[in-house]
Design a protein that fits this description.
By secondary structure, this protein is mainly α. The protein has nine helices and two strands; from the N terminus they run H-H-H-H-H-H-H-H-H-E-E. A two-stranded antiparallel ribbon has the order 1-2. The protein is globular.
């Protein structure tokens, strides 16, 4: 046997073991690309006047619902979803994108692209519904995918943690979904959720004592999204046990 043959045989297993360094579900990559494209257009192509027009038509404004629907455009209908496609700046977009990758990937792998897009829309609506309940009639524009990202976090809390508390990046989506009672008894879920709620609570308290540079954070929408994902994720879930068994 020649030296080349030996080298080929030794090297072959190494090639088979290689995995992509960047392996995200296609539907998640699509949404990240769409959010980036929209912000690129708003930042570098649209005039300030046109961008203001876009915000007034597609951002969410609680005050819309104090005006008779017949006396306004259809922004009241689509803005509870379209606001989640707009961002206040690159830092806002990058921050949301980072957490979307972290928690969106296992959720998308578990529920598939169609249910993911449906989850996106409904969690966006739930987030601003909770926000509006606490800020009825306010003339404040709400933008950003933070409510949806919070929904993905809430959904992930139902299945990503193993009994030992560890998270497997590749196989977390195959875990058994915890019931609400099991989730609330799981130390990892409690610690994760507790830190998340405490962080948002501190953001809210901080905003009570003065304006926030760059605009206020709609922390109430975060809570609405998280609760939606945590409580209603079973409606989107198609995996009921380990090994990928389905309903």
């Amino acid at each position: 046997m020649s030296g080349d043959d030996i080298g080929a045989q030794v090297g072959a297993p190494e090639i088979r073991k290689r995995e992509p360094a960047f392996n995200l579900p296609g539907s998640l990559v699509f949404m990240l690309g769409l959010l980036t494209l929209i912000h690129l257009v708003r930042t570098y192509i649209l005039s300030p006047y046109t961008d203001e027009f876009v915000l007034l038509r597609f951002a969410f404004v609680p005050a819309r619902y104090t005006v008779p629907l017949a006396d306004q455009d259809l922004g009241w209908l689509w803005s509870p979803i379209t606001y989640s496609l707009l961002h206040g700046g690159w830092e806002h977009l990058i921050f949301n994108g980072f957490w979307m990758v972290a928690f969106g990937a296992p959720v998308v792998r578990r529920i598939g692209p169609f249910r993911f897009f449906l989850f996106w829309c409904l969690s966006a609506v739930a987030a601003v519904a909770f926000h509006t309940a606490l800020h009825w009639g306010t003339m404040v524009l709400v933008v950003g995918a933070s409510g949806v990202v919070s929904g993905l976090m809430g959904a992930a809390a139902r299945f990503v943690f193993s009994p030992s508390g560890r998270v497997s990046r590749q196989f977390a989506h195959l875990n058994r979904r915890l019931t609400i009672r099991e989730a609330l008894a799981n130390r990892s879920v409690l610690v994760f959720s507790g830190i998340w709620f405490l962080t948002n609570f501190l953001i809210g308290v901080g905003q009570l004592f003065g304006p926030v540079e760059g605009g206020a954070v709609a922390w109430e929408a975060h809570i609405g999204g998280f609760l939606f994902g945590f409580l209603f994720f079973p409606l989107f879930d198609v995996v009921t046990g380990e090994g990928g068994r389905r309903d």
